[in-house]
């Protein structure tokens, strides 16, 4: 896609199939020296958790609603032909804590059955889904099912799948001693029986049924295994096992396949990956499960709906991988029947002297360099996401994932000192979020980087201070890879797709910096307090430009609603603009700016002149000045993200300036949120004494949508 000045954008694939995936979070139990373990946050024992599966009675929550859940995490497999996964068991335990733990969703422990590894056999799953959920459910009960483990496919025998393949769960004993995968047809039958008891069913599937070729040295693990070899070997001449590793191929079929249940009104299904992408685990944690915990763990000014959660989960997943999660069902339902939670999944101040020590739930993003806002322990609700009410900002120096040592980098004047029992709310993830690992293809492989070229790349990185703070060259396990072919350096993403080509090493390093920056900008979460809500206060759409080229005159534009969960489809050759509306519920005016994040690493700032547009409640604006109109062009079916930010007039943030180098930003006057974000990007937090400030960051918010270019003729 090109701007009128020939800048190139990419786009995204259409959401098609619901798929399965699994993930894992390794909770480090070895504590840092001198750091105390907080009570109630140790990972629960798998056997102890499974005891609840035999409970006879259902306990009502404090609000009188009966809540039940079945959680399955399969990381170890009986068959030697199925690779084990490090993540699902701990991911299952984290979901258990989200539902039952302190500041969780008020699911009584007696109502939650957890099956992990060898307890998660095919027979056990069928038995407990029936006995623990179906047999005990009553009308209006709130029921949750979570699965983390491998997903796969098998041949469809009843003709209900357009692609000829059924989707499957792969339980612990699958493909051993004659036990087959558990198919979506079988799952539909169980769901239909459960739906006859209650329609308030929520399903989370962190697994996948689609395979994509990943580089062997990637740090990602896929939650997909191919169909059984016997099915591939024994297929007839007219049968084909369809590979679904290409988003463009799946789009060509124009069919929705995957874990699509029969007509079950009211049900909600969240799946880790669709659209031909693969559900992934990174650093032994499910990317999708991390996003669920981050989103569902917060406390909002109003009850969170599944639609609002889905809109927040998508950019969090996109910040970490190319997978595209899929959501369907009655998304207007409040999450888990609207539990009235008072506190988010925050950490707690354990000690203040001789060193500041924190501890709590194993939150995604907590590692060295993570930033917390510390609030008085008596605050609750939306106040814990209001930066004006924070005592201080602290930065993590060491962390086990359950505990951390930290120090103050900024404190508000005339505020009480930090005390044990105060709450620490994660505001920005650790340094690893900023750091993009990049591998140089071995010189022994085709397209490999020679020793001489490797020296040039290292020297260029060393000279680019901003890139040094965000890009790390590693021997193995790089998320991105640099190769060389036809006199050009080639940058490839984790899915092995070429992202860009350059003639000079300096261009390569700068482009990698922008890719790392995109991860940061995608993962930022607003701090709206009781004033604003992410994905709600700012309503974003892509709209046709007033003037179109002749090639677009016979094409039709299907307008997506504001803040749509699915990508806006833009016909090839169509000109388009970004439209933003400030909700009439906003109590104040906001300064609005935005960014377009392209999969080739390009970042376009809106407004193009680097300023911001003031909007009052109920007002809207279209970014349509010079350089703000874009043209849909190839490549097709590639997803790009549009992020729009809103800050109060007393605390302006020139968002487009943050995409520039630190040298270019050096003359800016920085205060409040802009100062802290600038320090975060440069990695300079905590190098001096704490800053005493009375220009406290004011509440701010953000919304994002995605887009993809389509060819209407295909």
From TrEMBL:
* Coiled-coil regions, chain positions: none
What parts of the sequence cross the membrane?
A: none
Sorted alphabetically, which Gene3D superfamilies does this protein's record hold?
3.40.50.1460
* Matching Pfam families: Peptidase_C14
This protein's source sits in the domain of life called: Bacteria
Give GO terms: molecular function aspect only: cysteine-type endopeptidase activity
What is the protein name stated in its UniProt record? Answer: Caspase domain-containing protein
Q: Which GO terms describe its biological process?
A: proteolysis
Q: Which residue numbers delimit the Peptidase C14 caspase domain?
A: 66-335
Q: Which taxonomic lineage does the organism of this UniProt entry have?
A: Bacteria, Pseudomonadati, Pseudomonadota, Betaproteobacteria, Nitrosomonadales
Q: Which organism is it from?
A: Nitrosomonas marina
Matching InterPro entries, A to Z? Caspase-like_dom_sf, Metacaspase, Pept_C14_caspase
Q: Which GO terms describe its cellular component?
A: cytoplasm
* Cited SUPFAM superfamilies: Caspase-like
């Amino acid at each position: 896609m090109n701007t009128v000045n020939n800048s190139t954008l990419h786009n995204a694939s259409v959401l098609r199939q619901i798929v399965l995936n699994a993930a894992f979070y390794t909770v480090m139990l070895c504590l840092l020296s001198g750091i105390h373990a907080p009570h109630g946050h140790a990972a629960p024992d798998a056997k102890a958790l499974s005891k609840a599966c035999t409970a006879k009675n259902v306990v009502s929550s404090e609000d009188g609603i009966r809540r039940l859940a079945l959680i399955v995490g399969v990381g170890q497999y009986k068959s030697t032909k199925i690779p084990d996964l490090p993540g699902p068991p701990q991911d299952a335990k984290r979901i258990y804590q989200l539902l039952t733990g302190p500041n969780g969703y008020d699911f009584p422990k007696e109502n939650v059955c957890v099956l992990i590894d060898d307890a998660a056999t095919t027979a056990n799953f069928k038995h407990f889904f029936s006995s623990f959920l179906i047999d005990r459910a009553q009308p209006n009960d709130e029921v949750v099912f979570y699965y983390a483990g491998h997903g796969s496919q098998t041949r469809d025998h009843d003709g209900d799948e357009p692609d000829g393949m059924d989707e499957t769960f792969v339980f612990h004993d699958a493909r051993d001693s004659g036990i087959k995968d558990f198919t979506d047809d079988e799952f539909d039958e169980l769901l239909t029986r459960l739906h006859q008891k209650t329609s308030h069913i929520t399903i989370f599937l962190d697994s996948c049924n689609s395979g994509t070729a990943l580089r062997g040295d990637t740090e990602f693990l896929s939650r997909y295994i191919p169909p059984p070899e016997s099915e591939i070997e024994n297929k007839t001449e007219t049968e084909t096992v369809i590979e679904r590793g290409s988003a463009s191929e799946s789009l060509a079929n124009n069919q929705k396949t995957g874990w699509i249940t029969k007509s079950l009104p009211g049900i909600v299904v969240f799946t880790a990956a669709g659209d031909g992408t693969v559900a992934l685990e990174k650093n032994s944690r499910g990317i999708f499960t991390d996003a669920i915990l981050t989103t569902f763990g917060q406390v909002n000014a109003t009850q969170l709906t599944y639609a609002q959660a889905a809109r927040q989960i998508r950019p969090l997943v996109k910040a970490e991988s190319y997978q595209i999660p899929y959501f369907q069902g009655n998304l207007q339902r409040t999450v888990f029947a609207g539990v009235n939670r008072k506190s988010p999944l925050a950490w707690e101040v354990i000690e203040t002297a001789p060193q500041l020590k924190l501890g709590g739930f194993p939150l995604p993003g907590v590692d060295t360099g993570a930033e917390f806002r510390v609030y008085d322990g008596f605050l609750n609700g939306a106040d814990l996401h209001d930066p004006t009410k924070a005592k201080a900002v602290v930065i993590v120096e060491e962390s086990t994932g359950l505990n951390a040592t930290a120090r103050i980098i900024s404190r508000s004047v005339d505020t009480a000192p930090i005390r044990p029992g105060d709450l620490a709310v994660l505001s920005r993830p650790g340094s690893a979020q900023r750091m993009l690992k990049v591998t140089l293809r071995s010189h022994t492989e085709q397209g490999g980087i020679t020793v001489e070229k490797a020296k040039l790349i290292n020297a260029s990185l060393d000279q680019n201070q901003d890139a040094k703070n965000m890009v790390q060259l590693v021997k193995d396990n790089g998320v991105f890879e640099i190769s060389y072919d036809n006199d050009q350096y080639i940058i490839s993403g984790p899915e092995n797709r070429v992202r860009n080509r350059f003639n000079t090493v300096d261009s390569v390093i700068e482009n990698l910096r922008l890719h790392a920056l995109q991860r940061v900008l995608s993962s930022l979460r607003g701090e709206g307090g009781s004033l604003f809500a992410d994905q709600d206060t700012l309503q974003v759409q892509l709209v046709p430009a007033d003037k179109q080229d002749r090639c677009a005159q016979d094409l039709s534009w299907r307008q997506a609603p504001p803040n749509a969960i699915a990508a806006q489809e833009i016909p090839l050759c169509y000109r388009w603009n970004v439209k933003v509306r400030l909700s009439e519920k906003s109590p104040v005016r906001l300064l609005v700016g935005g960014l377009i994040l392209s999969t080739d690493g390009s970042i376009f700032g809106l407004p193009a002149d680097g300023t911001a547009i003031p909007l009052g409640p109920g007002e809207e604006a279209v970014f349509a000045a010079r350089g703000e109109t874009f043209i849909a062009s190839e490549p097709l079916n590639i997803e790009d993200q549009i992020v729009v930010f809103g800050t109060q007039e007393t605390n302006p943030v020139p968002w487009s300036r943050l995409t520039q180098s630190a040298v270019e930003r050096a003359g800016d006057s920085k205060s409040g949120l802009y100062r802290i974000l600038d320090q975060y990007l440069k990695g300079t937090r905590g190098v001096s004494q704490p800053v005493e400030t009375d220009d406290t960051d004011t509440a701010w918010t953000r919304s994002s949508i995605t887009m993809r270019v389509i060819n209407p003729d295909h």
